[in-house]
Amino acid sequence: MFNYLRHINKTWINYVKLTRTNSYLKRMNSDDCNSKILDYKKIRNFSIVAHVDHGKSTLADRLLEKTGAIKPSTENAQVLDQLQVEKERGITVKAVTASLNYTYNNDSYLLNLIDTPGHVDFSNEVVRSVTACQGVILLVDANEGIQAQTVAVHSLAKRNNLIIIPTLNKVDLPRADPDKVKGQLNSLFNIDTNTVLSVSAKKGWGVEELLQAVITRIPPPDVDLNSYFKAHIIDTWHDKYRGVLCLAYIHSGTVEVGKAVKWKSSTKQHTVKYLALLRPGEEPIDKAIAGQVVMVGLGPKGGGSVGDHLLSVDAVENLETTSTQAIKHMVYAGIFPADQSQHVFLSDAIKKLALNDSAVSVNVDSSPALGQGWRVGFLGLLHLDVFTQRLLQEHKAEAILTAPSVPYKIKLKGAKIIRHYKSEEIIITNPLQLPDPQHIEEYYEPFVIGTIITPVQYIGAVTTLCVDRRGSPLPSNAVDDKMTMMQFILPLSEVVIDFHDTLKSITSGFASFDYQDYGFHPSALVRIIDAV
Questions:
Q1: Residue 422 — left, alpha, or beta (φ > 0 → left; ψ -120 to 50 → alpha)?
Q2: 3-state class of 287 per DSSP?
Q3: In this predicted model, what pLDDT tens digit does every residue of 505-528 receive, in sequence order?
Q4: Residues 487/472, Cβ–Cβ less than 8 Å
């Protein structure tokens, strides 16, 4: 019996040794690949930005194929769109990173690609992504030309001082008119037409030249390898066994598995337990340097949140931080469990999903009819729809939603009521939160600047629509002899419900629409309901 147990024990020890050896060899192999690009001057960080449906995900597929990250196949479609909701809807809702190896002039480069969403409701994903980039591929459909979101992402790239590689896609289609679209780029953005590249993401035309342009036009990251380790978090997600995993851009220093680190928001010390490149699947590494975009895990209790900074324990406290723009939620809705017995389960699901979707805000709410729930803020109606769909698909959590509404701001009067709310001005996301009218001095309504690009023959219909929605016109610009860019100041409440559908209807589907926050402005408002 003793010999048998000794044999079993010896077999187990040998198995553990073999497993560790295989794991070590796998890590060593990946480290060999990583060591080839440990010169930060051979790193290029870039995003693909465009209007929705201009072919970002298809281009990302071709880039993955050209760099050997995936095998060429006709079945490769939206490889980086990993969520079920993305595959069903055919849109990108989460920015995804892929670290690609590419050889140019006998030098090995690491290309950190970030595929971003194109819909305005997920613009926060684009904003976070560009903070880890030095350049962008501005993709424009050679058939449709410049659209509203094209203007928005170009402006975002300019504000972040990023190198822009203008690229026309779908040049293989019969309706493609590259010369016309190049003229639009020159007219609106003053882009030299000789710098515009042409590709067909579907057929792979011009992808090799685009990769070379990424290397030659986009500079390496401006980092300091000899300084303290510092990284900022651009995305987080929850793993059942490893806890919170973070996607981090390293600004300075180096990080290794086993290194002691701390969060800028906390003094508690943690140990780096997981470190990997996303290719797009995880590839474990032991070390990463400044300029890289890597996955970092600190274990089940390590924590992590988007926008926070991860530092070495000896880092000085006055390190310059990456500025992040405050998220302004456009739509609020109540989320309640179908049965109050499911409250804890739904609460856990919302917390995990909110960890992966930092654009939402979650606050405890209650309803006389529905019981305990949450008031959740979103960037738009599509964002709300996708969030609830992900709750069901990824967490099997069913929920009841209240009618969406926009936030309002009110100015209070009376010392007693001001002391009660601890402020003279408060934001209202639910009509039931409104104080009595005698305590309100003024109402403020959220407005946006709407950008519409439309064929010139629909200018009259678009103007009528916007004026009917209480819009005020701003100066317009000609895109070319057939298209014009119009701008209006519009109340947010007139935009979020059915404005986009109506715009598409009156322009036969040719107009595109995008909007940006314009703040709160005085408005004549009154509460028309007394209960939810």
A1: left
A2: strand
A3: 999 988 999 988 999 999 988 877
A4: no
